[in-house]
Amino acid sequence: MTTPTTPLDRIRPTTTPRRRVRDLAEHFSLASATSSGTGLPADAEVWSVASDNRVVTTGDLFVALPGERVHGATFVPAAVAAGAHAVLTDLRGAELVAAHGGTTVPVLVCEDPRALLGPVAAWVYDTPARHLTTFAVTGTNGKTTTTYLVDHVLRAHGWKGGLIGTVEMRSGDRVLPSRLTTPEAADLQALLAAMHEDGVRTLAMEVSSHALALHRVDGTVFDVAGFTNLSQDHLDFHGDLQEYFDAKAALFTPAHARRGVVVVDDAWGERLSQVATIPVATLRVAPAAAEVPVADWTVTDTRPQSTGTAFTLRHRDGRSVSTATTLPGGFNVANAALALAMVLEAGVDERDLARALDAVGGLSAAVPGRMEVVAAEPRVVVDFAHNTDALELALAALRPTTAGRLVVVFGATGDRDKGKRPSMGAVAVEGADVVVVTDDDPHGEDPAAIRAEVLEGALAARESAMHGPDPRPVEVLEAAPRASAIHQAILGASAGDTVLVAGRGHEVWQEIAGVDHPLDDRVEARAAVAGRGDRRLGDRVAVADETREH
After folding, report:
1. Among candidates 257, 269, 267, which has minimal Cα distance to 227?
2. Structural domain that includes position 514
3. Among 459, 484, 471, 482, residue whose Cα is nearest residue 542
């Protein structure tokens, strides 16, 4: 089946039940604010839902949400012109509609339309998640990789899978790029309904803290939820780590999941395992002290291999699965173990799972922009690491297999949590031999000011490295724009060096002062490798634009 997509790449089902607007109002106890004042017409029906007037089609319920700058009710005339059969909004939205002359379609009113959007969309699409076995992954780092690995395991088991996350959306063999880590609630329910039409049996999905706070997954109860870890990130949105944690913890309640698997290698995971209000299996990857309680699942027999890491996942009841992942680093063993544990907690037999993994060579899923090797000599790796912990782990993963220098190119995102910028500079110096500070996505901030905050932490850490008990020289450079920084690092590398280009991963656009510019770190890295030509390896290459040594 092929479903035409809208300009915003939205997947919808081809057929859905027709829902009477009167039944919708009764089911959710919604007030009517129709212009005529005579109540709801008996024949008004909707069969799809939209909260963005640009994707409205005939038969939609248009949910007009309050925005930061403009209320969605402003776009009711455009939505009705595009085919909306009814409107759901709040009291302020209804007042705006009335003030602009009313509308020809029924208007329903509730206190918080954003919180009701997911449940309403699920009702309109006939609760599509009930047809799928659903897996949700949350955490600061590792969501994308773990989700891909869950999908890989399920497909190896012979099931047709769906995937929703930062990089892309998949419905069987249909693939579309993602605009959000977790789609808006109306889009999510439409996508689940389309997956059911496509014959998809399973769903592996990233669920961000923003999505939980903004009710994007309301109306969906996942079969298994997984938690990777938590560290400082997104505090521009959440305020502090406790609020950030509370948003993540909301996934582990009966409103959102039936059971969970929680990695308890850090204090936040331990806390989540205690406050979760659904059955939770704990997973411990790192070796624990003798006094630490035994986890339900543990990783044992970890063995480095030429192509990755072999390990065994054991349950306290004696069940076990031995496999290997081709993804580098101990943190990817944690991601792989979490993926396996989630599938096993869903009821898959460990013997069947082991046979399926053996048949496909283990956990060998390639994740775009996640420790993605784009060149061999020098080794160039592109990764999404965009916060302190992720950057530290990525460098630690690459150090043991780097014969020469470890070079890192990275920056910090503008209009986001500023507190992590100096710490990112510090861990870069602690983990690398050459640090190239450049721009990430500046958004609305001055790129030079962002780099200065990162450099503050990097230069302080370099002083400690140079004058500590075990002095270690570290070269710190500032280079912009980002493409030039990537080229400088690669052109100046020797064959045995590793160059880590961190922060943007799979992303192909860089936002500067509100304007999107095409930029793919992988494309730039390959071009730089190709351009090395006859340059003598190890030479410092001067690159145009702005480059300074610190």
Report:
1. 269
2. 372-549
3. 484
